[in-house]
């Protein structure tokens, strides 16, 4: 059985880690380099770094900050925000990222997924889906959740796999920051529709929420932010609890 992964997420705005609820009401959560070091030491399996206003501000990801984080940690490191070309990805990989995450640019130009998979390999390409339930359907959103699209979430997930994405980072905007639990039904649907790993994001508040997302939700990885940033749950405790529940974890 493949081991499940625990992934802290650093949402970055103006060089600081921030966290909000339903993608708004952001509050400061600390220095990203210091937080990254703590998570690597605690046994996080991977780290995700999202420059959440890069696309909205029409600028590139903060390369120097990526380089500083990469020098500090020894676990796989995914970077997203403002990535729209092969050159952008090259720069981030050269700065120390292991994988990149695209969202708005993939919606705008789906062929970018094919290009990046061909150039760098599928294992490098994570496509993030920010989704909200609107009028009875799960709809893909872009620009940090600000813009709804015409895309249906489950059909889009299938297309990402066909185009060469290596992983899907699925964030339910309806549950994000609520600590009421992951969007289990949607996560299970996406996990069933695509044959690539699904990282579930949005809604983690208790250790049992991770149990639920790995069992009912069939996710390959659970991503969270505020519960780790504000020390509500410590990663070693979470991994121990999940192992007790029979879920295979990397020690």
How many β-strand stretches?
12
**Shape, please?**
globular
How do the strands line up in the largest sheet? 1-4-5-6-7-10-11-12
Rg over CA atoms: 16 Å
- Quickly give the CATH architecture: Alpha-Beta Barrel
Distance between the termini: 15 Å
Plain-language structure description:
This protein is 35% helix and 28% strand. The protein is built from 10 helices and 12 strands. It has 251 residues and is an alpha/beta fold. The chain has a single domain (5-244), classed as Alpha-Beta Barrel (TIM Barrel), CATH 3.20.20. An 8-stranded parallel beta barrel has the order 1-4-5-6-7-10-11-12, surrounded by 6 helices. A hairpin with a 2-residue loop joins β7 (125-134) and β8 (137-142).
Give a summary of the structure in a few sentences.
By secondary structure, this protein is an alpha/beta fold.
Q: Keywords, please?
A:
251 residues, 10 helices, 12 strands
Strand and helix layout:
Layout lengths: L4 E9 L2 E6 L2 E7 L1 H11 L4 E5 L11 H10 L4 E4 L5 H9 L4 E4 L1 H5 L2 H10 L4 E10 L2 E6 L4 E6 H11 L3 E6 L11 H10 L4 E4 L5 H9 L5 E4 L1 H4 L5 H10 L7
Parallel strand pairs: 1-4, 1-12, 4-5, 5-6, 6-7, 7-10, 10-11, 11-12
Antiparallel strand pairs: 1-2, 2-3, 7-8, 8-9
Helix pairs in contact: 1-2, 6-7
């Amino acid at each position: 059985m493949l081991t499940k992964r625990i992934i802290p997420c650093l949402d970055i705005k103006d060089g600081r880690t921030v966290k909000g609820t339903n993608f708004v009401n952001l509050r400061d959560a600390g220095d990203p380099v210091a937080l990254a070091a703590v998570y690597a030491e605690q046994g996080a399996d991977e780290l995700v770094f999202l420059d959440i206003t890069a696309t909205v501000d029409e600028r590139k990801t903060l390369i120097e900050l990526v380089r500083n984080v990469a020098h500090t940690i020894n676990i796989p490191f995914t970077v997203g925000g403002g990535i729209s070309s092969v050159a952008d990805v090259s720069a981030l990989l050269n700065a120390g990222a292991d994988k990149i995450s695209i969202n708005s640019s993939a919606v705008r130009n789906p062929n970018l997924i094919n290009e990046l998979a061909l150039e760098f390999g599928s294992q490098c390409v994570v496509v993030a889906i920010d989704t909200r339930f609107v009028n009875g359907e799960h709809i893909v959103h872009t620009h940090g959740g600000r813009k709804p699209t015409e895309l249906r979430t489950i059909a889009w997930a299938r297309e990402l796999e066909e185009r060469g994405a290596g992983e899907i980072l699925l964030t339910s905007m309806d549950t994000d920051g609520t600590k009421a639990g992951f969007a289990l039904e949607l996560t299970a649907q996406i996990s069933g529709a695509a044959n690539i790993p699904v990282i579930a994001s949005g809604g983690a508040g208790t250790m049992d929420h991770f149990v639920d997302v790995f069992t009912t939700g069939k996710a390959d990885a659970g991503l969270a932010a505020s519960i780790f940033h504000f020390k509500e749950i410590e990663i070693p405790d979470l991994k121990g609890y999940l192992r007790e529940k029979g879920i295979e974890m990397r020690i």
